[in-house]
Design brief:
The complex is a heterodimer of chains A (763) and B (147). Chain A is an alpha+beta fold. Chain A is built from 7 helices and 43 strands. Chain A has 6 domains: 2-36 and 513-538, no CATH class; 40-89 and 254-404, no CATH class; 100-241, Sandwich (Jelly Rolls), CATH 2.60.120; 405-510, Macroglobulin (MG2) domain (Immunoglobulin-like); 559-668, Beta-Lactamase (2-Layer Sandwich), CATH 3.30.450; 691-756, no CATH class. Chain A has a 17-stranded antiparallel sheet that branches. Chain A has a 6-stranded antiparallel sheet with strand order 8-7-10-5-12-13, with no helix packed on it. A 6-stranded antiparallel sheet of chain A has the order 37-36-41-40-39-38. In chain A, helix 1 packs across helix 2 and helix 4 packs antiparallel against helix 5 (677-685). The relative contact order of chain A is 0.11. Chain B has a single domain (4-146), classed as Beta-Lactamase. A 5-stranded antiparallel sheet of chain B has the order 2-1-5-4-3, with helices on both faces. The chains are: A alpha+beta (763), B alpha+beta (147). At the A-B interface, strand 1, strand 20, helix 2 and helix 6 of A face helix 1, strand 3 and helix 3 of B.
Amino acid sequence: MLLRFSKKNKILAITTLFLSISYLILFCNIKISFVAASNNSLITPLNFPILEFSDKKGTINNISSIDIELPSSTWYITQIEMNFTNIEYYMDNINTVEDIASEDDLFLDKHGLEGLAVQIKLNLTTTIYGAYIKINIKEPHALDNIYVQITGYNSSINAPNDIVYGQVDLNYTIANGWNYQNFTSPIKLPKGNYFLVMGGNVHAGGQYHWYYNNTNPNNPDLYISENHGFGWINGIQGSPFLYKLAQKVKEKDIFPETYNMTAEINGESYKILNGTHNGSGYLKLSDIYFSPNAEILHIPIKTNRFFFNLSYYTKLKNQFLSDAFVIITEEDNFWKILPDISRVKYNYSIKIQLPNSWYNLAVFKDTIDITSSEDIVINGNFLHILNDTINDGANWEITVKSPKIDFLIELIGGNEFKVGDILKFSVTAPIRDGKLTFRLYNGFGAEMDNKTISVTSDKTLYSYHISSDDPPGNWTAYIYWNNLYNAGMQSQIFTIKSQATSDHDIPSNDGLYPLIIGLGLAVIIGAGSLTTYQLVKRKKRRSELKLKRVSNKFKDILSLNYLMISDIKSGVNVYEKFYMGKSMDPSLISGFLDAIRNFGIELTGAYRKSETVILDYEDSIILMNESKDFRLIIIMSDKPSEEFTNSITNLAKDIEEKYGVLIREFKGGQITQFAGISELIEMHLNVSFASPLRIAITKKAKFNAIEKAVIEKAKEIMKQTNLNYFYSTFLMTDQKFNHETTKVIFDLINRKIFQPINLNLKE
Amino acid sequence: MDDIIWIYIIDNSGATIFSYENNLKGTSEVNQALLSHFIYALQSIAKNLEEEEIKEVVIDKNRFFLMKEKLTNYLFIIKTKPNAKSVILKVILKKIKNRFVEKFTGHFTLPVQDKIKLLKSFREDVKRIIEGKNHLLDLVESLSRKN
């Protein structure tokens, strides 16, 4: 019996202990698990620097300056090597062939000669720009048609042949003397014999004399010939016509250093060194780093008289910033780099810096782990991805882990604060680099603050003003630090007390306090503790549900695109309102829905929610509610919550009740009688939240601190934007949902402090 | 250019033609609805913008640069961090607008697939413009430092 009693006691004691421990675990872990559910880790986006390299080589022939195409204008050149071959150098000069006249009795006239020609003998490839000829023109006529040509050489008769290399109408500025004949395009002629011809038809009594020297010519071997209208006669030597050639002549024996051949790169002149043989040269520049800021690297060669063939080799380098992120956790950090690699068509590789602390590196190409491939090389602190494995369109991911980096948190004013205080502390980052992210959660796990501060000094101060609406309890601040290569996180718990009482309003995750309470009450609370836990859990659920409702309502309103009410018989719209988003033709949608009905397709299951039909149409969501008199169509950019769908059903019922008869009897014409529908819409859907709002403050209106702050913010934004209205979303920091601000805006709209105005941005 | 948070191009109904986020953002569904509305609402600020005029506004510490394209009436928006340099951002916004016009002029009626290709290539251009450290930006930056 004693034994049985003792056993019973034992069982009771064990049960009580178990319940007490359960209580403690549950009590202590309520917030911990909630915070864990909201994920203590932080995903921080990064712009991760990646180096890309390319070696480009090629040959270009017959050029006078160098253009090398680069992958893009951001690339740098780090080395360039150029080998010049077949270098040609051209000199401009006036080549005086004959300049002293002895006779001028050979001339073109109407009944006599039609052509006079003198041999041109070229010993080198020559470019001829023009020719000076000494002529004497008598009684010219406007209809005279005289020209100057360079022709080929008929070696059988030493006279011009039919090949014309260039021609120009006779130009003269003085009737008797030297006149320059400029060919429109320079005539490049290889070494050989040619003829300079003056020919044409003389209309009246004009005479076109060409001086010649038959006494002591410089070039007595040059042939001249005449054309009497029947073709050129056999050439004769000893009396060449007077002429000079404006020409460019290719020099012999070109060595770049002799001719001071230079390449102009990045504003500097670099001498081209002599090559191993005549007409060759080279230039090599290493350890350079310059960007032409263009997609073409243009290298002028001075002077412009060189022509050459080139083979080149360049080393190119570029840095781009890749999408990346780090997940900072309480243990190690996980990094993912997502480089968008667009390979260039020549030899190409990637280089990424790896800090010593990184481990578990993996490189994925199109989701396949290729870390152990021979094209993935880890050399010292760098990861190289080599040419052969890089192809266009591949998806790359590089993942790696890093250990947690610790940093120091210094409390300012302890870890207990009351409502109205400023919660503050400072953080000493491991190095003066990167950024600190602060997230502050209340006892229910709801985010109270989220800010990021760049580390610019040894200590970074964080502060948060605890407002009267903030719930007391144990709050947790999570602090994350990261730069491009390292990261770490810490947390700190603060006790926030209400001004009226210092008791805990909600359960605490402070291990010591509940432990003392728990131990003291362990024997007596037992199952009672579970009840307390249930109450707390319910309170938390209610709070979460409330937040969810505000969030849903907010999302639904901002997704509203268009609302239309049409008479079901005539199809005429009695009310329509555009809210925001892409333009759609409502009549097309209405027709589309008609077609569905006419074909007898039953809208059931997922498409039917209460009495409102929901359809996906292109990128939009269409909600339709039909009564016997009207059709209510709403277009949204996103799927609405169930509550919103129910609100549509209720709205349709209200419209039926208040405007059903009017719509039924509507025969077209004025629709002003339906203007009041907007009040019903506002009542059911709160659409003002998405409308432009103005501020209307009455003298009697009183506001709490948060309302004041929201109103002041709205005023400040109107001042900044120079508008007399604002939008609710302008008040959301960083365009992120904030339930407190949302709730205040809804309240202020209900109190008509924030009033919607009509505005059509599409006008 | 780390100061840029995002770039949007929207038509006059507020529909997004092009978006570019300069950072990875874990935006929730609700935030997307908010962002869409916010961008739509920015049109009110840009309503009377002249061709080539850039409007700069500060909303809740972030800066927004807005510019309209005359023919299409598209609105080009850049959101930046508070300390972003106006003079540089204005140059970037103009370059992006000009690049867009250059790329899409005459191509608005292309088949969807071709438009997607064009947009992909435009995205690369935008990336290059905002990440590229070019001579013009250097110049502007040095001038702004002097001022």
